[in-house]
Backbone:
């Protein structure tokens, strides 16, 4: 018998209730399709896949690399994020270019969001225009607990945007109302601190993901409709994503340029800037 997406979604949610381990990518994909009111056939057509291939994943088959790459733009997610949600190793071509750029990535964003929108766009254009350099080494994200759950997923997504614990603490404090110590992000990443509606909304803003969809995937109930992220937050998400392609030297150049554009005001950062 072939199950409809809503039927399959409800069945899998019931089976996964109360479980601490990964619910399976099929459950998560069903949640996304249900949220977007996508049928199996609609996803298959847009991703140029067979409906049977999609049904197989929904029924519990492990997704292939090719399938994840194809469905990512259709469901509106970065492919790297789908690999993380699926609990699979992220292909090297999807990883940040240079681990050493982690030192500068937070400052690119933190200084940029203090600038007028026109100057933020100039920085984005600069990042995109810089020549692509060779990968100096294999990217290795800090290991998280295998049972980390939703907290581990979002922290790993941020790791693949070249943010370490300290970088997460700095950027989220400036761009969102979330103000936590660096070590707390490690606790979230290991699944020892549950995601709250506030955390989901703020993580989603920096990841460039719809907060309602991230909440649905994480199994977190949002008590109210989250507001549209402020322009600074949306620009922060794009800058952080695009800066992944930079070498450490390039990232340092962009960070120093962003800081210089602020002039004397670069001596301090405002917390929760978009809401100030």
Residues:
């Amino acid at each position: 018998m072939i199950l409809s997406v809503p039927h399959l979604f409800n069945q899998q949610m019931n089976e996964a209730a109360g479980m601490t381990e990964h619910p399976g990518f099929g459950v998560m994909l069903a949640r996304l399709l249900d949220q977007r009111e996508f049928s199996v056939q609609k996803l298959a057509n847009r991703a140029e896949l067979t409906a049977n291939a999609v049904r197989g994943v929904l029924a519990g088959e492990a997704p292939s690399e090719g399938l994840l790459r194809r469905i990512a733009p259709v469901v509106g997610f970065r492919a790297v994020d789908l690999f993380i949600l699926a609990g699979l190793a992220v292909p090297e071509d999807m990883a940040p270019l240079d681990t050493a750029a982690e030192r500068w990535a937070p400052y690119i964003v933190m200084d940029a969001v203090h600038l007028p929108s026109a100057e933020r766009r100039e920085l984005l254009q600069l990042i995109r225009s810089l020549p692509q350099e060779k990968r100096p080494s294999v990217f290795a994200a800090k290991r998280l607990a295998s049972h980390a759950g939703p907290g581990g997923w979002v922290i790993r997504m941020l790791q693949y945007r070249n943010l370490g614990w300290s970088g997460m603490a700095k950027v989220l404090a400036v761009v969102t109302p979330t103000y936590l110590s660096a070590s707390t992000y490690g606790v979230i990443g290991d699944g020892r601190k549950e995601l709250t509606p506030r955390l989901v909304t703020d993580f989603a803003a920096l990841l460039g993901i719809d907060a309602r969809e991230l909440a649905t995937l994480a199994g977190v109930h949002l008590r109210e409709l989250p507001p549209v992220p402020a322009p600074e937050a949306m620009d922060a998400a794009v800058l952080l994503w695009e800066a992944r392609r930079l070498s450490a030297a390039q990232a340092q150049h962009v960070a120093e340029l962003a800081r210089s554009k602020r002039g004397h005001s670069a001596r301090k950062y405002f917390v929760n800037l978009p809401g100030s």
In short: Confidence is low (pLDDT under 50) at residues 1-20.
